[in-house]
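Write out this protein's structure.
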Amino acid sequence: MGNENKMNDEEKNYLEESKSTFLPEIIVDKDEPQVTYSLSDEFSKTRKNRTPFLYLTIFAFVGLLVAGTVLLSGYIQKKFRDSTVTVTAFEDLRLIEILDKSKKLEGDLGRARDELKALRTAMNDALLQAKSPEARRAVEARYRARLQKKQTEVAGIQKEIDSHDARLQESIKKAEEMVSNYQKLHRLEMDRQKNIYEARMEDLVRKYNPWFTEADVKNALRSPDAPKNAPVDQAGYTAARKAAREHAVLMKRMQKIPYKNSVSPALDKMQSNFEALQSHHESLWQAFVKYRHAFDFLSRTQPESGYVVDSRDKNNVYV
């Protein structure tokens, strides 16, 4: 009776707690006017609650974003300019200026030679028309100064052309040396990049295909393979236990390799399945030991010439 009263008290307490939880003391009167929700009113309230701080925050964020974009763009352009070989390095050689000057001098030389030839032709025509020696000497005297001046002009232009040719050859030689140096630098940079990427590749190979140095792992790898059709006896059970221990050692080491994507969960699944199989094998072995004990006891207490282990196979007789 005491227990029944105790149960009734507990049920009453539970009922009161339930009522207080699901039936609040204050019940809203259905006849009381309900407050309606107006979307336009709420929007107007929201507009009134807007503060300048919100706009300042948005403008500041946009400004920081634009500034970051400009700085990043400038940094990328600077790196590109530093890493790109441009033709500005050749401007000091003034190759274009020398070539233009040489072309102009060649034109001046051709024009001066034509004018010199024209003067000689005119002088020869005048000499042919002269009737007396005095007239021919007068023609020669009239053209002599002009011919000497034009010859001096042709010689001067030729000398200037030779000087520019020497400068041009020197500039070309310097340009070839500069190009050769850039090519050497390019090869050195390419070799450096090649060494860097080869080192990275080697690190990746060692990371995901390492050489095992642990003694237990090496012993497990050097151990002979477990027999696939081992007899169901203590020796076979010991060999299976040894293979299971070696499998656990190897799997534990494999799980330390930082594989990505599906490899790591695949190894975990393989280990989980193996542990389940190992547990099932242990249960079967314990059951086999019990049956073997009972069979040995029966054979000692009720000796027979032999026992048929499997009636489906009359040749399978346990003696």
